[in-house]
Amino acid sequence: MSVSVVHNTDCLAFMRGLGDNAFDLALVDSPYGIDEDGSKNHTRGLLATSQNYKAYSSGDKEPPSPEFFTELFRISKNQIIWGANHMDLIAKPILAGCPPNGVIYDPFCGTATTLIGAHKLGRRWIGSEISAEYCEIANKRLKPYLDQVSLF
Q: Between residues 113 and 55, which one has the greater pLDDT?
């Protein structure tokens, strides 16, 4: 399986095609079914400052299905499901849940905050994002990191 890739696909369909324990860690900041887009989110930015934030406008009308969680637990050895996907805070769950050079999966990768954090911390990663617009943003944010040559 190729790593350092953002797949423009529905995460549930993607997970169905994976083997058991394909990832060391699934780090998930999932839609919560709160029917609120990011431009109205009154708690955003209280703990960390977002940079180049683009409001997510899907509406998050439904939480992930029970099948999503069944597949998530099947394809990953560890899972951390949380709601604070900010670069300032992402290191702790990555370090706690994934060994060095391990592989992290973010099923709702959005603008790639988790993936950038994983890359910076020496973890391999794969993301999926259903929105083509967000995949484009994620790939633009990831490009400078992927273009760097590692000396170690």
A: 113
